[in-house]
Design brief:
- The structure is a single chain.
- This protein is an alpha/beta fold and about 220 residues long.
- It has a single domain, classed as NAD(P)-binding Rossmann-like Domain (Rossmann fold), CATH 3.40.50.720.
Length: about 220
Amino acid sequence: MMLNNKTIIVTGANGAVGQAVVEIAVAEGASVIAVDRQFSHQRHNVRQIVLDLTDAGAVMAEIGAIDIIDGLFNIAGGFAMGPTVHETGASELEAMFATNVTTMLNMCTVVVPKMLTVQKGTIVNVGAMSAREGQGNMGAYCVAKSAVMRLTESLSKELRHFGINVNAVLPSIIDTPTNRVDMPDMDHKMWVDPHDLANVICYLGSTRASALHGALLPVVGLS
């Protein structure tokens, strides 16, 4: 099993992708700590922490109390279409940045020092294929996910000589209930299944991916 005897934190664990990642990580032998603002149901084999990841103090208090963290899967994030760039206000930029970037940075601030102490660990972030370049009416989202991708590369360069692997997945449209409602006329078979994405994330969090540093890995299904 890829994650046998590893303690893995999964943020955004109540979402469609987060739930799939938790399921695969458990199946691969991990002890999973699931983190989110709320949970729709209780899993008997997973520790669940209700936490606002934009609150740096709360993250420090809750996550700082965990002794061993072998892997951090930063799934927490969000998407929203926006107005045109010239109509985008600071509040829209700040909301996308907080959801996608601040959540990841707050977790890394607490987790990275723990990994440096033991000279090992893996971090997997979630960027976006669409954010490799600007997109119309998606300016704030592209800015936020671009930041995640650049920070992933920077973290990797800073940490790879200390036994810590940092990589990111770049999904296209993910086949979630929300996306099906928002885009009912599209061919859902072309989208990325959450469990397929979860398998890639868990691979990147395992020792099998020990040679990968700073990779931004497209996961696009047939789209």
